Amino acid sequence: MSSCTTSIDGQGGGRRFLTVVVYILVVLGFLMNAHMIQHFSTVRVPSPASATTNHVDQIKNGGPLCACSAFKTSVPIFWKHFESEIKEAAVENATTFYPEEQNNSSEFHAWVDELFQDHYQSYQVRRSAIHPPGLEVTLKLLEIISKRVNYLRDNTLSEAPPLHILVIGGSLTSGMACGINNLGLKTPGWMRQYTICAWPNRLQHLFNRVLFNGEEVVKVSNLAVGGSNSEVGKTLLEYQLFPDSFQQPDIVIWSHATNDAQEEDKAKAYFESIPGFVNAAHNLRICDDYLPLVVINEEFFGQQNDVSGAIYKASNWFGLMGISQRNVISHKIFANFDNDDYVKRIIGDKGLHPGMGAHIGASWTVFYNFISAFTEVCDYTKGTSSLARINSSDVTAKSIGPYKEHDYGDISSEWKQHRENIRENCLVVAQEALVSSSNSSTTVINSINQQQESPCTYAFMQSRMTSVATSEDVNKKMNEILTSNTGWKAEGYPERQPRAGFYAKEENAHFSLKIDSSMQTKYMTILSMKSYGDNFKDTALEVDVRIERKGGSESTETQTAKYKINGYHDTKTSIHIPHKFELPDGGAKKGDSIVANFRLVSGSYFKIAGLAFCMY
């Protein structure tokens, strides 16, 4: 019989007494650990001369696993102990930047408390765990956190950047409608709505507010692009279409479930695009055995559920961290779907873009899963700081890509060959990066990852987080390569509809471009919009491309390739789709020129949101 079981007989009373004693011991143990957590989260600690406890000395001067001092309790106890801070973080994200004085609204505080108590208790949120991350990669994340905390406490140490989380998804992830609520609170305007109350920003605030006393130990970059699916996310990662001086991420979070679920070709989306995204994320730091950690995160509340199976499969096949907020609350939403007030109090809206409650819940869910992962690895390692001492059977190799359980090929041989190719390539790069024999392997790997060049001769993708956000930015980028233009114009807004892009709004609109190749360039990618609107019906763009070889005009033998892209689909949503084409005649070598003509051959409306001419 469980020690939690009650009984009315004498023996049951003894068991109840024993249970109480055990509970008191657990609570006392937690209070001691809570004291350690508070020390850890207070980044500005006394100087070494005034440090009076071994714990403070360990945090300030100890090894890379000092972060484990904060994760010695069970996750449910941690979650309960920091409940007030977790809820206050949700309130602060909704009030600090808004003039509506929501912080003084007792109804708003009561609603956040109700949301937490009714739907996000530890036993409820743990339903979100699809697959745990590997111990090795989790340990690396804790090392990065520890070094950052140590640096903030003593800036004479080597500079340590924040743990960097990159989130990529569609309009839901970007924050569209994240201010919607049923409390009568004023919904912020477009600019602040997107930049403040989206769940990735809330996640950053949660980490730093709850664990690190407000210091920037964790940084979250939200590069979500409205209307984008996994194929767009893969392109963004593959071609590194990042802001200037972008720090390579330690964690990449996929949140494309909403738009992938709307795809007509589900097989392509689930079995090609998602694996392609994962490989592109891993390749950002290909020479690091562990980083980045890739997280598959389901934040979609639509009643189509087939995307959940794809998320489960990807998480398991690749050994990723898998999270599903849907698993926490969807059963409650669908069981009460006709009760508008009930549903809106949980998420904010029934549509593809749920409101404030959904974004608060998403940040809580992702945060909980990271706390769980950190606690797990700290319990497993028992304080060791050595990767070599982890007696783990986890696969450290990065996956070769598409799922192959159903194939009859030798998966193991392919996997080993893939790892050998990576090893050989990284050894060559490492030798070039090794300035002196005193450089450590970690320093060399960091140098390699930070110095990776873009594989593109020319590339841009419109995103509010990059240097190409406004219509003016798009116009400037296109003018770098345009040789002629009739009927195309850069217009739109960074966030609200219509979003910035290069638009054709008349029949037979056409433009030409010329790009001098700075490297071997084999592929052209066009990011265009597909939609169901009447203005998109029967629209088609035709593109012909030729290569002008270095040292003269085009050869008589030079091939010309022609491609066609349609702008309409029946799905009741607007999405951006990358169309990747192989350039003719083997592509362009360094010094060659790429000449392309774009013409609207059907219809009178089309949108281009990005172009890329790249090595692969």
Automatic annotation (TrEMBL):
It comes from the Eukaryota. The chain crosses the membrane at residues 17-37. This is Uncharacterized protein. It comes from Chaetoceros tenuissimus. InterPro entries: SGNH_hydro_sf. Keywords: Membrane, Transmembrane, Transmembrane helix.
